[in-house]
Amino acid sequence: MTQPMVSLRGLYKIFGAKDKDMVQFVKDGMSKDDLLAQHKHVLGLNDINVDMQAGEITVVMGLSGSGKSTLIRHLNRLIEPTAGEILIQGEDVMKLSDDDLRTARQQKMSMVFQKFALLPHKTVLKNAGMPLSVRGQDEAACDTEATKWLERVGLKGYENHHPAQLSGGMQQRVGIARALTANTDIMLMDEAFSALDPLIRTDMQDLLLELQKELHKTIVFITHDLDEALKLADHLVILKDGYVVQQGEPQHILLNPNDPYIEDFVSDINRARVLRVRSIMTHLEDGKIPADAHGEVDIDATLESMIAKSGGDTSHAYIVMRDGEAVGTLDMTALVRALVPRAAPEDGARNY
Fold first, then answer.
1. If I label 142, which of 39, 51, 166, 240 is the partner at 20 to 30 A Cα–Cα?
2. Can you spell out the DSSP letters for 36-89?
């Protein structure tokens, strides 16, 4: 099995003067509320175990206070863990010297912030080229690389503007260009689109997915918005009170919630618009294609598009294609069943 780009192992974060003394209380089952009430310490992360694969977008989502922003800040040690391991390509970042940590922050990980974090006195070009400038590269090289990425994110012609002259969406494009200029394998995006208007936010999501098809970065994306998470994630991690309630492929979570908390999250989702054919199709047995199929459909087509294609006729079946090859069949009755939310197990067992 391929080594994950990022692995979190038994990660705990407790805020307070005696944080390390509090870990055993949490391991013994003390809740976040009880830890605060009895010991005046705040539980940020509770036994986090997550693998983030190279070239994938891992989305960490949850409500305010769930620990998602705390988690992402552990990857580059802006926050130090109370206990546990943080492995980047198998290397424990907790064992890095100050110089090595500084190098890792500059060359292995770049970050896109919710509030843009642009320097107001510098031009768009100089903001975008800053990661290379910090590494000591000459001004011409910085400008050349920054210009390339500003054009890729749709900001050609704005190089000499200052941040205050740009809209919020344009400022965030500068932030993305800056992260791309850094040319790191890992991009950390902490609620990067949350401050944007809905239409601009959708444009930014589309831009990120377009760039990812080409660049195959390892992206850790924080959000509180389930629609955004389902759109972007290859791997989805849902937090509550600092622990992982459920994680996995987003379509699987939507179809198989393992906790009432997850069921509440997904209950109002437009399933027809989000779910894909690949999640409900039946795989071909021995390559046998049914003779009564009504045509071919792409494996990544939405269920909404299939309803339109079939005219709502539940008697139809289709051949599912991937890259020109038949890989399965789709029965419209299975599609109708998938549109009905499935109740979570009553015990709500945690999935670590």
1. 166
2. HHHH--EEEEEEEEEEE-TT-EEEEE-STTSSHHHHHHHHTTSS--SEEEEEET
Question: Mean pLDDT across the chain, nearest whole number?
Answer: 90
Q: What's 39's DSSP letter?
A: H
pTM above 0.85, yes or no: yes
Rounded CA gap, 162 and 178, in Å? 14
User: Which pLDDT belongs to residue 346?
Assistant: 56
Say how far apart CA 237 and CA 287 lie, in whole Å: 35
Give the pLDDT of residue 350. Answer: 42
Region of 271 (left: φ > 0; alpha: ψ -120 to 50; beta: rest) is alpha
**Cβ 225 vs Cβ 68: under 8 Å:** no
CA atoms of 187 and 212, how far apart (whole Å): 11
Low-confidence residues in the chain, pLDDT < 70: 1, 286-288, 290-291, 342-352
Structure tokens at 267: 């209950």
